[in-house]
Design goal:
single chain, about 375 residues, mainly beta, five-stranded antiparallel sheet, four-stranded antiparallel sheet, about 10% helix
Length: about 375
């Protein structure tokens, strides 16, 4: 009689490839050898490196997603989180941070182990909280949040920075003393975590607050990359982007295989989009190399996707996949979640992900690389 432990490795790998990310914790406990094989698949060895493995928020629900260019995407809603309305997700070193739509609570989740932790944020009345998830050099996960509110009638912007230790028993937020001379806009509020730190696209604060008082030749008109170092618990110096001195540059970031950052941007008034990859990335140093450029002229919808959507990179096939909502001139037409696949030499394809039940909720995605880190 053939036992489950006697199945050939090729068949086991095929079985595991069909198991949803969030069910692997149960599958890996079946047989010791399955545990090792599931880890190999999840940490993106072998064929799994050809796929985007991660999570998406669609219609305020968290879904697991597996996406490659040869097969239809596999998108499954996460039953464990069905009771929450989620507006955003972030990933860092095996943990996923889910931000609730009303900002009142957060959920930290290890999908591989099935562990969750609910955190009361006490910020339900704020609509401008920016969150990020990172970890220090000891592997301890932390959450950074900052408030970006204006004082009514004063024209003054109030910023407050706090940090939370995920596995601390205190369950409290610590205040960080930060005096920034920069500003992170709502278009760039989704920071990207890499090697435990989080990166944003920021702009000089004088561009927003002092423009009316400055002479034309004094106005600062450049964007830069900004890193928060979770080990030192402070922001680093301004890091150069591969473009300079362009007002109204549309841009966004993503993480590639936990190794590099990718930057997608478009100059105002031009229909050429460029993607650049970091060749070196540290809290205090960065260098860039162009990945490819794409002519957006025939595809008007991409302009909106580039500003508001999230994306990932397929290095082997040299394409980018942007997630967004379809745009219709007829306001009565139902909006649909969509993936735009673009590549060098004008490669273009659209993948319909289904009808959107929430007209104002654009899909957002984050990659996922699992770990055995425990949530206390």
């Amino acid at each position: 009689m053939t036992m489950i432990s006697d199945l050939p490795e090729e068949l086991v790998v095929e079985i595991l490839s069909r198991v949803p990310l969030t069910s692997l914790s149960a599958a890996r406990s079946t047989v010791k050898r399955w545990n090792a094989l599931s880890k190999d698949r999840l940490v993106c060895k072998g064929e799994a490196r050809q796929q985007f493995l991660g999570f998406m928020v669609m219609d305020m629900r968290v879904c697991s997603v597996r996406f490659d260019l040869l097969n239809a995407p596999s998108i499954r809603q996460i039953g464990k989180l069905d009771q929450f309305q989620i507006s955003d997700v972030f990933h860092c070193n095996g943990l996923v941070l889910c931000v609730m739509d009303n900002y009142s609570r957060l959920v930290v989740w290890n999908p591989y182990l099935g562990q969750t932790k609910l955190i009361e944020s006490g910020t339900a009345h704020f609509r401008s909280c920016y969150y990020s998830l990172g970890c220090d050099s000891c592997g301890s996960h932390k959450i950074l949040r900052f408030f970006n509110d204006s004082v009514q009638g004063s024209g003054r912007r109030v910023l407050k920075y706090e940090i939370y230790d995920v596995n601390s028993s205190s369950n409290s937020w610590r205040v960080l003393h930060v005096t920034p001379d920069w500003y992170i806009s709502s278009d760039h509020k989704r920071g990207v975590s890499l090697k435990g730190n989080t990166y944003w696209i920021a702009i000089d604060s004088r561009r927003n607050e002092e423009e009316d008082q400055l002479e034309e030749d004094q106005i600062v008109l450049y964007d830069f990359l900004l890193c928060f170092d979770f080990t030192k618990e402070r922001f680093g110096p301004r890091l150069q982007l591969p473009f300079n001195d362009f007002f109204e540059v549309t841009s966004s970031l993503c993480c590639v295989r936990e190794e590099q950052l990718a930057l997608m941007f478009q100059h105002s008034g031009f229909y050429k989009m460029e993607i650049w990859m970091t060749t070196k990335i540290e809290p205090q140093e960065v260098s860039w190399s162009k990945f490819f450029a794409f002519d957006m002229t025939p595809y008007a919808g991409l302009n909106c996707a580039l500003r508001h959507g999230s994306f990932f990179i397929d290095m082997e096939k040299k394409v980018a996949v942007l997630f967004d909502l379809t745009i219709f001139r007829d306001s009565t037409s139902p909006r649909r979640d969509i993936a735009y696949i673009i590549g060098e030499d004008g490669y273009y394809m659209e993948v319909d992900l289904g009808k959107s039940e929430c007209d104002h909720c654009r899909p957002v995605a984050c990659s996922y690389v699992p770990s055995l880190v425990q949530i206390e």
